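Thread title: Can someone regenerate the structure for this chain?

I was given the following input by a collaborator and told the matching structure tokens would be attached. They weren't. Posting the sequence so someone can regenerate them.
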Amino acid sequence: MVRKTTPSEQFAPKLNLNIQDIERGHARLADRITELSAFDVNTVSAGMTPELKALEVAVKDTLIRCFGVDTSSYRTYQSATSLTVYPISMARGSRPNLVDPVDRKVKSAIALLSQAQRSLKEDLIDIQHSSSTKVPESNPLLFSKRIFLVHGHDEGARETVARFLEKIGFDPIILHEQANRGRTIIEKIEANRDVGFAVVLLTPDDEGCVNGGKAEPRARQNVLLELGYFLGYLGRDKVCALKKGTLEIPSDFAGVVWTSMDGDGWKNSLCLELQDAGYEIDWNKVMRG
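Best answer:
Regenerated them for you:
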């Protein structure tokens, strides 16, 4: 006889998440994994502490935000919300060992949330593969006023460019001004990459050379990493590199046109790049900037 599915066993369909939903969900899961990893299981004496209960609630809330209520995806990872261990009756005077079972539950929750992250990444890859190379017109990031500003140690250059972008109507995103929330640098970049354009400041903050060579000025390594990241994520036509002074340019970037910051001409050049990328530029504001 075929067993019938009861109403309580019927799950809501999987949510149709967009790119921003997936990225926010990935960041939220990373926060919960960090909190679970930092939890000291040795503090558990009776199977439940306020901190452990708060973790349970936080994990459940995150799963609901990521996958919806009672969806098939939520049910897949639901056991991650169960962290409590209730002691069984024991002989008088003996104390149950609750640390080991709670530790196993916490590790199981971390593994489940990590798998949930991988699932979201696969969903993101599916979305990217199903779309064309160019961002479609309907994508809200295409002409987003948020511009990611990649910079090194030259605070003067950073502030000059950031304030100019604000004057002409854009919202510069500077990484260190965004909340850390226990994330790594690359996780912060991923959480704040919902931008339509990136400006990269190549300033002579470091020195380097090949073995036996003469040290030459070059940009910070994190700047070069983020330059490559946004070239791949946004495309070359959505990235403008502003170069200040004399410094070594990576060989992989050789031949790509950058704009010199020595003088005021960079403002017009940057606006031309933005205009060429599809943005409407108020040139009266540019002249006043």
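Confidence is low (pLDDT under 50) at residues 1-8, 132-138.
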